[in-house]
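thoughts on my protein:
***
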Amino acid sequence: MKKHLDKAKHDKESDNLDEKALVQALKPLIEEATNILRETHGAIKALDPDGTIANNASRKAQDHNATKEEQHLAESLAKLTGEVTKAVEEARDFIKDMPNLKKDLGPLLEAMTQPLFQIVSGVGLLLNGVLSLLGNIVS
C-alpha cells in the first residue's frame, strides 16, 4: 500500500494522478490484508471459544506476571498494530479530499481495522494459551 500511496502522492503533485488505477492497485491489497486479519482472528477465537484462556491472561497482565516470551509477543503485536494503523491512517489522510477515492477505498479501510482490533482484544489468548501449549510440546 505504501508504495502505491507514495507514487500517488507524487503523481498528485504533478497533476498526473489516475484515481481509477490507484483504486485498482489498492483494493486487492486492502482486501487481502483484511482477509488475513480475519483469518487470524478466527484462529484465535477457535483456540479459546469460551474465553477462559483470555481471562487468565488478562489477570496475568494486570498482575504484571508476564514471561519474557509473553512480553515479546505483546511487543510484536503492538508493532503489527502500529504498522497497520499507520498504513490505514496514511491512506485515509491521502483520500480525505478526494470523493471518488474516499467512496471506493474508505469502507475497505474501515473494514480492515475491525479484525485488527478484535485480534488485539484476543491477545490474552495468544499470550497465555499458545505459549503454554508450546511449552507443553517442548517439554
In short: The mean pLDDT is 80. The chain is about 85% helix and 0% strand. The radius of gyration is 19 Å. Helices lie at 2-13, 19-47, 52-62, 68-95, 99-121, 123-138.
